[in-house]
Structure formats: structure tokens, C-alpha cells
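ugh ok fine here u go
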Amino acid sequence: MKTRFVVLGFGLPDELKDEVLLGDPGMPTQTFKFADNLKESLIQNHSEIFLVSTEPVMNYPANSNAFFKFKRFTDSSGVKGIVLPFINLFILKHLTRFLSGLALLSNILKKSKFDAVIVHGIHSPFLVIACLMKVFFKIKIICIVTDPPVTPKSSGCVEIQARRLDRFIIFYFLKKFDGLIVLSELFIKDNNLSLPYIVLDGFCDNEKFHNDNVDFSDNEKFTFAYAGGLSEEYGVKRLVQAAVQLKNIELFLYGKGPLSEYLTEMSSSFSNINYMGFTPPEKIACTLLKADCLVNPRPSSDSFVRYSFPSKVIEYLALGVPLLTTHLPSMSDDYLSHVLVINDETVSGIVNSLRDISSMSKLELNSISKRGQAFVFETRSCTAQGLKINQFFNSI
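structure:
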């Protein structure tokens, strides 16, 4: 008999994802990737799912839409779902998502029997809704902890207080769940949680990323590439400042964010810096395959990375291209023999790492990248991770 899950989160059909990505400055690409891979992992393990979702958008006026409507959909995988209506204004967003989600999910569970509700993310309205469903319908609830609650660095007093209240609500209701799926075990340890849990740091889509023969660039210069959010917090600026000091390499950057204007200027001023703008997710993999080495420069000292795991680490390894990365606290030791590590995250340290890798033989780099590719295909595939989720559900 199939296990039946309601997934309360951010899974949307392609046309709605495209609308969000084009219209929202937050560019929640990774949120959509995780939602798609979660759905695929459950499908591959013969689970039946129904999606109750919301658009992951920034508050109005950062996002030009103040109101989001109710929608029904069937996505390209044949999975059915609904999109919750809400008012996209500070505080009202949480309240209206809670009210619409409570009413609509209650109606779904009244009409059809499900085995569990899986909450994607620690969005407080969804946590409260899930806990109420547990009481009303005696259903198991599991939360996938993807992004920890944070207080903005520069906010007004009202927003800071609201964020603190939101954090209290999150941890109060999180403790009522039957189990947690975390990206990093540090989230459990730092917050003294005693719930059953498993660590699931991400997914590898074998079909999308499979590449048996890496075709290294024939350029005279050794090419590094980065794709994703372009912000100083992700270490992008330090990476660029390091790359300009090495004239025998080229750095290609893809994406958008606060550093877009800075990168445009650097690209004009330095011949080895190439800012390529935003590339759609469905095209970025083929683009990155042209690089000699991919880079994840996210600083390991940022408190946020203790509880998250950048999906690009798994995606880059799956491409079969060498990966240079910082040693993030959430990165388990089994990754270390498959990646090249930035041990000194200062600009001069990154310069040394780029220089050392660019002087390595292609044969040695290819050997490392092939081991990394095989590692994620075997242990982080959607099939493997979906099996892990199902086994965890059956154990709680």
C-alpha cells in the first residue's frame, strides 16, 4: 500500500515558478529545487502526494504583488495541488497564510485519508497548521528544517519584535512534531531538541546532472565558475577580489543579487572577470560543464550556515566537475575526500587556493571529480533520499 503524504510548502508547477523567479528580487531558486527534489524522491519511492503550497515571495513592495490568489494545479509529474491565497504585507502575510492554509488543509483531510503531513521549511503559519492537523485528525507530522529563523541585521523595532515572536512560535510548535528532517545535525544539538530526526542535506537528480565524460575547457586560461545568489554574505566579493590577482585564470559568474552592479563594473575593468548575468536554472548545468573548476565560496563563519547546507555543493559534484569549497560546519566528513577545500577564507587564502588548483593536472582533477560524482549519485540521489524519508516515517 502506498504511503500518502500532504506536503505543506513551496512546490509549484513550472509556470508559477517562472512567474515568481521573474518577478521576485529574492530569486528563490534553491527553494524550488528542494521542493521539486523532495516531490521526486517521494514519487520514486512509490508514495502518493498532494501539494499545499504558497509562493515564496518577498513582502510588498519589494515584490510588486500585494495579493496572491487561490489556484488549483496538476504539475508536469501529474501531482495535484493547491496554492494558498494570501495578502503579501508584513504580518498579514503570516496571518492570511495561516487562515487559508488551516481552512483548505482541514477540508482536504476531511475528504481523503493521508498518513502524514510533511512541512517543508520552518514557516510558522505552516508549523501551527500542522500541529492543529495532528490534534484534529490524529495524523503524523514531520518538518524538514531548511532555513533557520534569523533576525534582520537592520530592521525597525516593530519588525525585530515580530521576528522574535515568530522565532518563539517556531520553536514552541516544532517540539510538538513527531520527527524532524534537518540539513545539519548542529540544529538539533544547538537547540537541545529531543525529537526523532534524520540528517538529509540535499538531493542529487541523476538524470538532470549525469555527465560521464567531463569535457574540460580548451581555453588557455584555467576557468573557475560560480552560479547563484550574488551577495557579499555568500563570499562572492572575496572570490572576485582574489581572482583579479591571478591573470592566468578566468572567473565566470552567473546569477543576480546585490552585487550585480559591482560585478558589471569589475567585468568591465578586469579581462579575467566575466559576469554573465542570470541564466535560467534549466540551462545553468550545461553552462557550468564548460568550467575547469566550480567554486562555493560561502564563508564558514556565518552563523546561518551551521544549520543549512548549500544545494550547489551536491549539484556541482553531480556535474562531474571539480569543486572548490569552504569547509562549512554542516558539511559531513564524507564529503572531504571528494572536494577541494579553501582552508584560509581571506582574500589572500582564496588566491592561494585558486593558484594551487589551476596548476594541478587535469588527470588529477578528473579523478577527484569522478569520485565526487559517484559519491552523490549513490548516496544523495532522489531515490536514496526518498527511501531514507520513508524509513524514517515508518520508524516514528
